[in-house]
Amino acid sequence: MNVKLKVLSAGVLFFTGQALMAQKTDTAKVSNIEEVVVVAYGTQKKETLVGSNTQISASQIADRPISNVLQAIDGASPGVKISTSTGQPGSSPSIQIRGIGSYNISTAPLYIVDGVIYTGSLNAINPDDISSMNILKDAASTSLYGSSAANGVVLITTKKGRRNSNTLNFGMSTGYVSRSIPEYDRVNAYQYYPLVWESIRNGRLTTGASTTVAAANAYASANLISDVLKTNVFNVADGVLVTDGVLNPNAALKYTDLDWQKALIKSGFRQNYDLNYSGGSDKTTYYASVGYTKETGYILKSDFERFNAKVAVDSQVKNWLKVGVNLTGTSSNGNNSVDGANNNSSYINPYSWTRTMGPIYSPYAHDPISNATLYDAAGNVIYDAGSNRGVSAAAGRNVIWETLLNRDISKNYYIISRSYAEIKFDKYLTLTTNVGYDIRNNKRNQYTNKLIGDAAPAGAAEISTFTEQTLTWNQLLNYKRSFGSHSFDVLVGHENYKYIYEYMDGYKQGQVADNNYDLTNFVTTTSLTSQTDNYRKEGAFGRFNYDFASKYILSASIRWDGSSRFAPDTRWNSFWSVGAGWRAKGENFLKNVNFVDELKIRGSYGEVGNDIANNYYLYKSNYALGYNNANEAGILFDLLADPLVTWEANRQYDAAIDFGFWNKRITGTAEYYKRNTDGLLFAKPLPVSAGVPGSTILQNLGNMYNQGYEFSLNVDVIRKSNFGWSINGNASTLKNRFTKLPDGQTEIINGTKKIMVDHSIYDYWLRQWYGVDAADGSPLFLVADAYANTTASDIRTVNGTLVTTNYAKAKYDYSGTAIPDLFGSFGTTVRFKNLSFSTMFTYQIGGKTYDSNYASLMSSYTQGGALSTDILNRWTTPGQITDVPALNSSTYTNSDVASTRWLVKSDFISWRQATISYNLNKDYIDQFGFTAFKLFLSGENLWSKTARKGLEPTQSFSGTTTNRYTPARIITIGLNVSF
Length: 979
Known about the structure:
The protein is mainly beta. Helix content is 9%, strand content 47%.
């Protein structure tokens, strides 16, 4: 059979022959195709791979309304866990490959774009320009990237032209953006006042300030508004609004505009346009594209806009010389919504204060007589500054008004460039040199208004800029040769990497003129700072691949890396891997077993490193500048460094079996891995007398491991020319354990977690909530051992268990983990003639979430904050069985504290993505000059089911929640045409 090399639009290389082209029915021999996948510094036949390499093709990304290419990774590979991106347009998800790679430094993978390390934001890359994405998970796949590959590697390959195939493609889509995670259910104004009244009344009785129920009732009625809530939105007098716990039956709302979310949450809009032209001759190929994306978020004043252009040219200048250039330019800008992760309870966090604002406060000012909404002379609504709100309701602030008045705009400019020259000395030996240069300029302009909020009455502006530059130059010498059944591939290379970061920030107060946000329009300089960081790496590496008849496979690689983060004596180290595979299908005893198409056993072992810390000078003690006294310079000892500090080492084991049966109708992989991370960086405590800032020093002191199983399965249920149905799925497990901590430290408590040997990084350490005493509604905790044999009024026995009503005496213990038992995805694709439908679901089983967002709505005594409808199940009557304590203004701190009460199951299933498309008949579109015409409808984040309405269990790997911008649901309709 005459074999030719064919490059498909999906960006995957295939070897295909003439006989294959005629096979269109379900009898097609898929096994005749040899797939070639992207690997470190090159490509390789998939059947000879011994490493773990998952490929995402362009067809899996096409037509999806995503602004950041990393969103396509969610659910695409086993062993890859995603912390979903926020609803901020253009935001990027966080990714962990095969567990948690570190405790104190980065756990993010290394990103390689067209063969070169990439450090910029991935929203700078147009998803339509992506040819393929490869996730490298084990040491055999990642070791050539050495000291930065411990957390896995993501290879992104962009599109290029094809010989003798000129094509013009145009695509467009438009749609709407909405909230995908529903809000927690909360009580309304009619329910709210009696609940707060009840807290006051019960507290009065508990303290003994009122000796009778009648007196306590009267006190609560008299003080509900004047002392606590400050606002009465009903048309009855304050003192008679609630009587004996019942809302006055004559009460009617004076106004109904009490929904703060309504003013901030709207339907957003998305539009996307892509145009590319590709083709070439026998000597030269080219690809050029332009794209435009505009997405407005569902939160007011949040958006993302991107313009991008790309050109790639490859030319066979001589028989022995090939050169190419790949250049991308991107300009993006957007209004930033407040990041809830960094500003969880900030007054300007729109998610916190619209969620937790009591249902009795309007964001708008009203006439005290007519109760009508007030407007200024220009017809603009007047906002309420919040002087009459309880202390839990952001008195004196108005997040809607402040969001409208404030500004936070980011602008980014990128140049991503790649060029190469390839010299063939003969048909076996090739020298390739690659140069990559990237530059990113970012400017962020923030303005805080002078009418209300943190900068009132002066107003303030802050402008920060940074420039990132990376320069990579490598030289690769590759020798490939076959002798009969023996094939081998030898690669040796050298690489230099340079990174420069330049930052400047200025903050000034005292606004002079309106509508001018440059610093020159402000009077007083509060801060002005800048910094420059430099980072260098150099590496020499080699790889040897051998296979005998594609049956017995060996692979070995080594890299010597030096990192400028470490001292010269510890700067250099070697990273290596060995792997082997056995393709049993190649053996005589399986050659004639027709239902077996592929059966390969493979395994690998190797070592990679992690040097991605926040500090570029880990081995140098630092002194901080800027501590000046008027005109006298000041400098302060800031960090004590250990000159022996070095990278964290990651030793990885991997064993797998790949299979394919019945003409590859069934394909899949089962895999086991274990990652041992040695030399974890910990801040070792030092005595205060040492005079060291923070009384710590960073050293390589800890060890931990991750291990798990991964499974993937693809089944072509029906494979006909006019009808096809396939299903796919993957599942993963993960176990994480510390095996060593710094000497003298048996435990490290960090928020809701405690680190100990033989425990996970994400194991909860919390007060042990017992429940509610049915006798009096008191909150109950298990008693700490130190108080078990003591007697006190706050310690009692309930149902034979010793408990306490005092959280200070509660027992702490391990309480489960944020790590799930199983996670993954499943999906299906159905094709009938020209119509196709594909969809994917993601899921998680096991693990727990500490839902602090829900906890904030369950206070036993709120003074203006919102309440969950679950509070309606509170204890009210002796003998009542419930898990919600009595409302009580004097004991509420005992029930509201951090404890296992706020842990909830993290199980979820999410309808992550779906696309339905229709390709018009070729006979019809030929008359208009089209070669392809496709209509499609696509959606992201369509639906999810969780243990509690409002819960978002995928927002962090650690299982904690924040008041963040929850992910957006995006539904678009569009078309793609080709000429």
